[in-house]
Amino acid sequence: MIYKLMIFFIIMVVSVLLLAGLSTYANQNKIYRGECEQNLQHIVDYFSVLMQADGKEFIAYQDLMIELGGEINIPVDFDGDYHPAKVAFYDAFHSQYPNKTLVTEVDYMQMSRALKILYVTYKHEYWLHIFEEAQDCFDVSYTYYVVPTGEHLHMYYMIDAVREPRASDGDKYIDLMIDVEQDMESHAHMWKAWETGEYTPGYDITDNEYGINYAYFYPLIINGRKMGVIGSDISIEKFNGKILQNTVKQMISMGIFITIVCGLFTWIIGSKYVRRLIKLKSRMATFSETRDPEIANSIRKNIKGTDEIAELAHQTADMISELGAYMEDLLAKNKALTEAQQKIKAANELAVKDALTGIRNKTGYDNEVIKTEKRMKDEGFYKFGIAMVDLNYLKFINDTYGHEKGNHAIIKICNIVCNTFSHSPVFRVGGDEFVVFLENEDYDNAEERIAAFKKILADLAEDDTLSPWEKVSAAIGWDKYDMRIDDSVETVFKRADARMYENKLAMKAARK
Predict the structure, then answer these.
(1) Residue 451 pLDDT > 80, yes or no?
(2) Which one, out of 136, 184, 249, 387, has a CA that is 20 to 30 A from the CA of 273?
(3) Kindly report the CA angle at 157 between 153 and 158, in degrees rounded to 5?
């Protein structure tokens, strides 16, 4: 009997190991695939966060890389230390533009060609270092960043963690901005990420000189501009080898454990206990894969007797039921939290938005004042001005032609203000009053912008094809922050408001 039981035990162990191996392989495939996708998503998320944080610098780097990539010479044996290139650029910049700062006083595109090349060299060495370090840290096969060339289905490999050499005057440099055709069939997720500007789960399977890989992609968007696509690959050979290795390890561990335990207790356990344990184990494995709480009822229906196995089955069923209830409660709370966050976000947006024109309202202006004064205190920010615009004849238009035409006039003057001062935030602070925070190019060219605004209104006044409510007229006054007399945004606002009033009086006098 013992001999027969041992024969049965051997057959059972072999059978269980084979079934468990297949199940483990399938489960490992699913788990490891999920881990790989998550790992690859983490790395492209990591790159995206860094690139977005780089902001204008990265935008300038990409634009200049497209323009000058063929002139950049980085040795193919570059050791990853980008600091010498950074020092070389800033030394040259300060030599050419003493006492000036990049971006705020000197735009990237205004630099000399030599400075641009130094800048792109430094930035590319920096990003190449980042990509190569991350590739090793995240244990992936390949990382890269591509941008469309403008030709159908073609991409520039702008940042490539696998260095391609090119020869020049006997030296070897990294081949940059390689133009590669990426067909839609093999790179569907890449093109979808670019076209939609959104991450979509899933991967492309690529087959090239580096082998067969799973490739994941994430679109890069900076300040609302769609820049390119971040990619990361993992080798299928490495992927399958890892799964097989884990499966073999688990099978060996499981085989040793089952053999020892069952060998010691074969003469005690008996076939009926083994079968019950196998059924319970199978249902637990099913729950691990499906997370279906109904499995608890299935376990309870099949409980027989009052021994330890029956008690274990009861406890397992109870545990599965509790886990199922917990997961349902967690999902419900997560849904409620998401809905609450969306409502709060919508309410915050409505609080600072003018319903008629769509621009920010008086609350939005007050928030901008607080933000600017904080920058003045923390950063020493003083390059701003205020322009005050007041629409004329609104009451006359409302009384004569109706409030709908009055709203038309408000929207039209709002559009003119926004288009004229396109680099500055605009706020509607009253029924017919608008405030412009002069910044950036509008600050540097304030007089030209004011003149252009007045010219537009003068042309409208001379256009006899327009209706009275379309010939919008407005007074404008403006001034810049002066460190000698100003200590807040409010003082600049008051001068701009006074000059607007002076302009309004002058316009009335001219009409008389």
Answers:
(1) yes
(2) 249
(3) 125
